[in-house]
Design a protein that fits this description.
The chain is an all-beta fold. The chain has four domains: 1-141, no CATH class; 168-259, no CATH class; 265-416; 419-478, no CATH class. The chain has strands at residues 28-30, 34-44, 49-56, 62-70, 76-88, 92-102, 107-114, 120-127, 134-141, 144-146, 150-152, 154-160, 163-169, 178-185, 188-189, 193-196, 201-203, 207-219, 222-231, 241-248, 254-259, 263-264, 269-279, 288-300, 307-318, 326-334, 344-353, 358-365, 385-388, 391-402, 406-409, 412-416, 427-431, 437-441, 448-452, 471-473. It has a 31-stranded antiparallel β-sheet that branches. The chain has a three-stranded antiparallel β-sheet with strand order 33-34-36, with no helix packed on it. A hairpin with a 7-residue loop joins strand 25 and strand 26. The chain is elongated and about 110 Å long.
Length: 478
């Protein structure tokens, strides 16, 4: 079976005996599906049938057993094929394909399983003449996931005019489809590009993807697809975040978000970079994205588009069974608008729920830095942070950020040398949240440290480092 005059099986002379010489090409395309190499042949005189074992070279080796009968003038009268496994241009891998030749219809028909899928493929190949040359054909598959990542309602490959035309339908109304044309040459299938139409296809049934253009190539004899597409991150104001797609023969697809320019998310968050793989759903979790990221946070400041804070670390989210997606953001928080030279404040974690206008923020003051390593780490223990010469703070703050808000507060401590900040005759008035204050008589030998407790709304008992005799409480005053 194959193209006209390139059938790998020898002709049969009158009387049912094989010809004296067998002309068998080293390899020949079998109806453009794969390249076959003959390994052995036997001929049964009683039935006039050739049985051949053929190995295919389209990735994993497969065995094809052929039983074909010719009459005494070389016309094909009966035949059957049993294919253990065969790859169709890296798009489909058929298993246990069984085809039988129908002399009344001059066609090969049968069915096949699809590796990695649950559908059964229907295979039909129309024979043009008695030589067995195939002039047309089709392979129809039901609901299928292309490369294990792009769900399709159905996939049909139609053969004619020496090429295979692939078309899909969507599993849902208004969803996207893919299409491609694969020319067939003397060496088998060649390929161009699998293209997506203008509607989204949900990667792994959850993350919307669009504009996919996957180029076909053969590397080390194996089909490879790679190209670009865009994804719509949950809740994002920008629905076309750049991503890449790559798949090697018989391997899982590798989809990766590859953002390198500003892209609006929501809740006061603007992504400036994101390099994160997309992983398909499991029995326990939904589709997930996690990887290094950087972003701008909070309201815009000044007359430009700069936002009040930045975060450099990582981003992670997992699709839940129900409800909105919760983003987890972790990294080094900085406020360059306050002090560009000493902008870093410590490590922060943010929780940003899809559809909400603000994100919760928790900051561990200190010198630790975010890593962006997945899974993202929990908030570290705060350390001492030096804001300026001699001025130090330590603690954990909580707050919120959004398009119009950014604040952090909480129990923390700070210390500074009074002698470096005030003249010898100066006094210090420290106010708590309700206006109570401590009056400190200063001299150049003293260093004052003040502890604030916003939760209890009262100042600490005696500021450390200041002799009690030098402190007196003043009446309530602003």
């Amino acid at each position: 079976m194959g193209r006209a005059r390139h059938d790998p099986l020898p002709s049969v002379t009158a009387g049912g005996l094989p010809s004296a010489s067998l002309v068998v090409p080293g390899s020949t395309p079998v109806v453009g599906l794969f390249t076959a190499t003959l390994s052995s042949m036997t001929f049964a005189v009683s039935t006039g049938t050739w049985t051949a074992t053929v190995h295919t070279s389209t990735g994993a080796m497969a065995t094809l057993t052929v039983a074909i009968r010719y009459d005494n003038i070389g016309a094909l009268t009966a035949g059957s094929l049993r294919i253990g496994r065969v790859d169709i241009a890296g798009v489909l891998t058929l298993a246990k394909t069984e085809l039988n030749y129908d002399t009344t219809k001059s066609a090969w028909t049968g069915s096949s399983g699809v590796i990695g899928g649950t559908s059964v493929a229907t295979v039909s190949l129309t024979v043009a003449d008695v030589t067995g040359a195939v002039s047309a054909g089709s392979i129809d598959v039901g609901a299928e996931s292309l490369f294990g990542a792009l769900p399709l309602g159905s996939l049909t490959s139609t053969y004619g005019s020496s090429q295979w035309q692939m078309e899909s339908t969507s599993p849902e109304a208004g969803g996207g489809t893919v299409s491609a044309t694969f020319p067939v040459t003397a060496t088998g299938i060649t390929g161009e590009t699998i293209s997506q139409d203008g509607s989204p296809i949900n990667l792994y049934t959850q993350l919307p993807a669009n504009s996919a253009a996957l180029d076909y190539a053969v590397t080390a004899g194996l089909p490879v697809y790679s190209g670009a597409l865009t994804v719509a991150l949950p809740g994002a104001g920008d629905s076309a975040t750049p991503a890449t797609f790559a798949v090697n023969h018989d391997q899982s697809a590798k989809v990766r978000v590859a953002l390198t320019s500003d892209s609006a998310l929501f809740g006061g968050v603007t992504l400036t970079s994101l390099a994160a793989p997309v992983k398909g759903a499991t029995k326990k979790t939904g589709t997930s994205v996690c990887g290094p990221a950087s972003m701008d946070l909070g309201p815009q400041v000044g007359t430009g588009s700069s936002q009040i804070a930045t975060l450099k670390g990582g981003l992670s989210f997992v699709y839940p069974k129900t409800g909105g997606v919760l983003y987890q953001l972790e990294g080094s928080l900085a406020v360059p608008a306050h002090n560009s030279a000493k902008a870093a404040l410590g490590v922060a974690v943010l929780g940003l729920l899809e559809g909400q206008p603000t994100a919760s923020v928790k900051l561990a003051l200190g010198t630790a830095k975010g890593t962006g390593i997945c899974p993202l780490k929990a908030l570290p223990t705060p350390t001492t942070l030096t804001l300026a010469k001699g001025i130090r703070v330590k603690g954990t703050l909580t707050g919120a950020e959004g398009d119009a808000v950014f604040f952090l507060k909480g129990p923390a401590s700070f210390s500074y040398p009074l002698a470096t900040l005030l003249p010898a005759s100066a006094t210090v008035r420290v106010l708590d949240d309700v206006g109570r204050c401590v009056h400190v008589v200063h001299d150049r030998k003293l260093r004052a440290a003040h502890d604030f407790d916003r939760l209890s709304r009262r100042p600490a008992a005696t500021p450390s480092g200041i002799p009690p005799a030098r402190i007196r409480r003043l009446p309530h005053s602003p």
